């Protein structure tokens, strides 16, 4: 009986394991994702010539996938093309600052990840540094420290520029445009932020909008997985208890039968 019970439990646990695909080959989009990551790692190592070759290989592969599978929207094609061109420039422009080179290829890497995954996009990992820098922006503004405000605001804008296109792919158009407009307003009227109370309130609104986007995306990713675990685990328990109950019923029935003989 115990061996049969373990068989039932094991079969139930197998339901939690991802079903292996019949085709073990890496999908074209995964190959593109891997190429973008390799280009970024090479750029970080200052192997710009090798990174450029990888980006060129990406271009050929991307064109092939676009023609054959037609899996990308016009917005995705436009955003990928712009990010790819900037990444190519980062590997060939010898006068560009090394940090800027990394930022541009990172932007490209995040874009490809955003179109290749539906869960946990890499750009959301930027939440902590972006909000930390924004805290510095807010503190400098409230203290009226112009130099610190400009420095921290420029740092924030640099980080935002890195995640801007990938965020645009994952956030609704209306919500993204609202956030982007508010950031551009603060940048354009940065002097007013230090002198006008209403402008300083924009910082608090912007902080809330940023936090809300990160929180909502995280909630959307987590809840389905949680429900899947609850449902799957509950199914195993139900199957196991049903089997135990059935065996108990059969055993009790046999004992009654033996007593009557």
Features:
mainly alpha, 2 domains, disordered N terminus
Walkthrough of the structure:
The chain is an all-alpha fold and 261 residues long. It folds into two domains: 30-116, no CATH class; 118-230. The protein contains ten helices and no strands. It has helices at 2-14, 28-44, 48-69, 74-92, 98-116, 127-143, 146-170, 173-188, 190-195, 197-260. Helix 1 runs antiparallel to helix 10 (197-260). The radius of gyration is 27 Å and the shape is globular. The two termini are 24 Å apart. Residues 1-22 form the signal peptide. InterPro entries: Spore_YpjB (IPR014231). The chain crosses the membrane at residues 226-246. This is Sporulation protein YpjB. It holds the Pfam family Spore_YpjB.
Summarize the structure.
InterPro entries: Spore_YpjB. This protein is mainly alpha-helical and 261 residues long.
The share of residues in helices is over 70%
Count of discrete structural domains: 2
Mean pLDDT: 81
Low-confidence stretches: 1-24, 222-241
Q: How do the helices and strands follow one another from N- to C-terminus?
A: HHHHHHHHHH
Secondary structure tally: strands:
0
Organism: Niallia endozanthoxylica
InterPro entries: Spore_YpjB
Pfam families: Spore_YpjB (PF09577)
Keywords: Membrane, Signal, Transmembrane, Transmembrane helix
Task: Give the topology, please.
Layout: H1 2-14, H2 28-44, H3 48-69, H4 74-92, H5 98-116, H6 127-143, H7 146-170, H8 173-188, H9 190-195, H10 197-260
